[in-house]
């Protein structure tokens, strides 16, 4: 039964993200020749392509060789390459996938042993909602990671400083949160993420350590850029879909289902759906969520604290 729920979750994530990008978007960017392993300050050191990417490169090379040496072999070669591209596309549409490279969907084992979970809050900062979120977190003694959009942060510079001053972390959620982010090439990713990194570092006084792709969608080129910039990709264990779900109860139930140490939970202080009373859903969800975390004898920490 658990397998069926997992399959359902994967299909929901892929369907949700597919609907975001199908209207008039260009095809996924091809791998650029300028990509090289980058030595950097990231925990993993130089970029090491994931095993499936090595397989994909080998498959494409084998298909090319077969077409040169055995032109009649073009049909199975084309089918093989097509199926491989389909897998890569689906992997990019599924935010929790590790096919394209390292990806935090749960906290590390030492953090799990300490009984920690992490609340991550996306798409802000928002001048009306973020301060109230900070007050709620303070009330319960909880810490969180705020994945900020750099252009929004630049409009409200004091909020980034306030987030850090209250013991939370500011992480990188891109410069502009573009819908077509996943179709970027190497230079596009590098420009978008590095500029956001610069802005958020300057505003918060601390360089982000984690990156979350807009909508969770990406392509194989993202990982070498993150490696160059010393950033770790982070997704989530569960999300509440609180950008489109107006019922706080449903959002809450999604987040606390099978709540356990190591969970990374996703909410939004930017682009938040509103309740019937006109309040951002996160403001109604946080109190019972934090109470549930405390009742389970867990503690909410930032991602960088969990990394320690």
Mean residue pLDDT? 85
- CA radius of gyration is 20 Å
Instruction: Classify the fold: give the CATH topology of the domain at 109-307.
Output: TIM Barrel
Largest sheet: 6 strands, parallel
Question: Uncertain spans, ≥5 residues at pLDDT below 50?
Answer: 1-44
What would you call the structural class?
Answer: alpha/beta
CATH homology-level superfamily of the domain at 109-307: Glycoside hydrolase/deacetylase
Which architecture name of the domain at 109-307 does CATH use? Alpha-Beta Barrel
Tell me the series of helices and strands, N- to C-terminal: HHHHEHEHHEHEHEEHEHEH
The strand count comes to 8
Query: How far apart are the first and last residues' alpha carbons, in Å?
Result: 35 Å
Helical amount: 40-55%
As an assembly, this protein is single chain
Percentage beta strand: 5-15%
The 3D shape can be described as elongated
């Amino acid at each position: 039964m658990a397998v069926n729920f997992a399959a359902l979750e994967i299909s929901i994530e892929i369907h949700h993200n597919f609907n975001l990008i199908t209207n008039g978007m260009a095809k996924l960017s091809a791998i650029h020749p300028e990509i090289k392993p980058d030595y950097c300050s990231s925990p993993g050191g130089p970029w090491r392509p994931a095993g499936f990417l090595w397989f994909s490169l080998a498959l494409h090379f084998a298909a090319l060789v077969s077409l040169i040496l055995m032109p009649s072999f073009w049909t199975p070669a084309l089918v093989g390459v097509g199926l491989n591209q389909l897998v890569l596309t689906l992997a990019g549409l599924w935010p929790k996938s590790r096919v394209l490279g390292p990806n935090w969907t749960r906290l590390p084992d030492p953090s799990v042993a300490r009984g920690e979970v992490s609340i991550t809050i996306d798409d802000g900062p928002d001048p009306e909602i973020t301060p109230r979120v900070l007050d709620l977190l303070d009330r319960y003694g909880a810490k969180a990671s705020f994945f900020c959009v750099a252009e929004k942060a630049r409009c409200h510079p004091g909020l980034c400083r306030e987030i850090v001053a209250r013991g939370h972390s500011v992480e990188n959620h891109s410069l502009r949160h573009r819908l077509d982010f996943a179709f970027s090439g190497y230079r596009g990713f590098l420009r978008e993420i590095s500029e956001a990194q610069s802005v958020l570092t300057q505003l918060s006084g601390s360089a982000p350590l984690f990156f979350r792709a807009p909508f969770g969608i990406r392509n194989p080129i993202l990982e070498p850029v993150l490696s160059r910039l010393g950033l770790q990709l982070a997704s989530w264990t569960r999300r509440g879909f609180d950008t489109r779900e107006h019922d706080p109860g449903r959002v809450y139930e999604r987040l606390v289902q099978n709540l356990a140490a190591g969970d990374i939970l996703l909410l939004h202080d930017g682009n938040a759906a509103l309740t019937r009373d006109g309040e951002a859903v996160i403001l109604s969800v946080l109190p019972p969520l934090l109470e549930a975390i405390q009742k389970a004898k867990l503690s909410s920490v930032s991602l960088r604290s969990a990394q320690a």
